[in-house]
Amino acid sequence: MTNQPIIRERTDAQTAARLRLILVRLTRAVRQHGAADLTPSQLSALSTIEDFGPLRLSDLATRESIGPSVATRVVASLEDLGYVQRKGDATDRRAFLIDLTSAGRAILTSLWGQRDAGLNARIAQLKTADVELLLAALPVLENLARERDAKQLGLKP
């Protein structure tokens, strides 16, 4: 009889807790650089529209894992800031698509540049061997994120 499943289960739980804490801390550190006057929800919505847009409001809500009324409020606030605009949907005249404005693209470009620079400065302080480990871990982290996105949209990862 082996304890392998018990050890694996305990290790997985410890790994998940450790990874969660690391991600929270890194996220906080990255957010300190280039703190725009955007809420995390607004920034996330802008990023999703940048990556997958133009999007219908319902598609944005699905990708963001938020309800339609929350998506409506986030989009309205981004419209007020001039970062997104609604356009007619060529395939469905009753619907509209949400897309970034030039100001929306500019704020994301500026913010990502500042945050990337801040994170790059931290990475530059690491030993070469640690940078190599970090680079080796990136595909695994990308797969974790991709799996979540695929499951959320009902797709196979």
Automatic annotation (TrEMBL):
Alphabetical list of Pfam families matching this protein: MarR (PF01047)
Recorded GO MF terms: DNA-binding transcription factor activity
InterPro entries (UniProt xref): HTH-type_Bedaq_tolerance, HTH_MarR-typ, WH-like_DNA-bd_sf, WH_DNA-bd_sf
PROSITE patterns listed in its UniProt record: HTH_MARR_2
HTH marR-type domain boundaries: 16-143
Designated name of the protein: Putative HTH-type transcriptional regulator YusO
Organism: mine drainage metagenome
Gene: yusO_9
